[in-house]
């Protein structure tokens, strides 16, 4: 049976990239299949996190899920560290995955930068824990943005090697679900870099908690080339900043870049940017109001995460037990 798993790291405030590339699609899959959505706090600590901030950001990601429409009675919502099976299977996968595979992961290279020697071992092994997050539920579908595609492919490689080494047909081949116009939302100041929670400047990103003025200001200051919008989408080909703004508009409005260009053919930035800001405010404001309401009651968020963790353990623990049996690890 199809089962969806995905997660978001509480490594900073949620961005428009997380919303369009992940959360909005998580909501779209709810009710269609069994859905399990996690706040992956153990991934967040692969780089330094202030403990108080980590707890706060974990609640903020949960509040973002709830405010956008994830419903704890329809989806399992929880934080990773409350379900020990993720870490336990992660260790087994560290013994299945090869160092050479990890060396090919582009996200590690991006995040570790030129000083890989000083990166945490956890950051290096991150994709192996991510494979465990997915496979401890035998999840078949993982909605992610383009940036995570390589990690889901590695998950398939780990599952295949485990099945092959132990001569079993146990872990499924997971499909990354990457579709729609917003799979890679770019940084507003540099159209060749992705929009990230932990990017240097706040002006690079739209945060889900930004108010209308901030959103308008950030789009107004967003980098563009001096040309107006083209008459057809082909004209966006070598214009990363222009293409990004058109794709953001399309994703927010549930339409295609073609339709956006058809609506604003040849428009100048003085017309398009305010229209984009108005659309973003119209879509995000109701969610940010709800997020603030949830954040006012942290005990309620903690209760929802604890109850989701219990449901998650009910699926994960038997799969982990079977894995231990296959590997030959005794568990009475
Ligand atoms: N810019 C983006 N465009 C589309 N999708 C995105 N996602 C993140 N940024 C974009 C998707 O959001 C989900 C959660 O990502 P994550 O928090 O686990 O890790 P990340 O991809 O490393 O996100 P950030 O925002 O860039 O965090 P930091 O700066 O802390 O590393 C994933 O499905 C991701 O594809």
TrEMBL record:
InterPro entries: aa-tRNA-synth_I_CS, aa-tRNA-synth_Ic, Rossmann-like_a/b/a_fold, Trp-tRNA-ligase, Trp-tRNA-ligase_bac-type, Trp-tRNA_synthetase. L-tryptophan binds at residue 133. Its EC number is 6.1.1.2. GO terms for cellular component: cytosol. It is found in: Cytoplasm. One of its GO terms (molecular function) is ATP binding. Keywords: Aminoacyl-tRNA synthetase, ATP-binding, Cytoplasm, Ligase, Nucleotide-binding, Protein biosynthesis. It catalyses: tRNA(Trp) + L-tryptophan + ATP = L-tryptophyl-tRNA(Trp) + AMP + diphosphate + H(+). Transmembrane segments: none annotated. ATP binds at residues 9-11, 17-18, 145-147, 185, 194-198. GO terms for biological process: tryptophanyl-tRNA aminoacylation. A motif ('HIGH' region) lies at residues 10-18. A motif ('KMSKS' region) lies at residues 194-198. Catalyzes the attachment of tryptophan to tRNA(Trp). Belongs to the class-I aminoacyl-tRNA synthetase family. Homodimer. This is Tryptophan--tRNA ligase. It comes from Yoonia tamlensis.
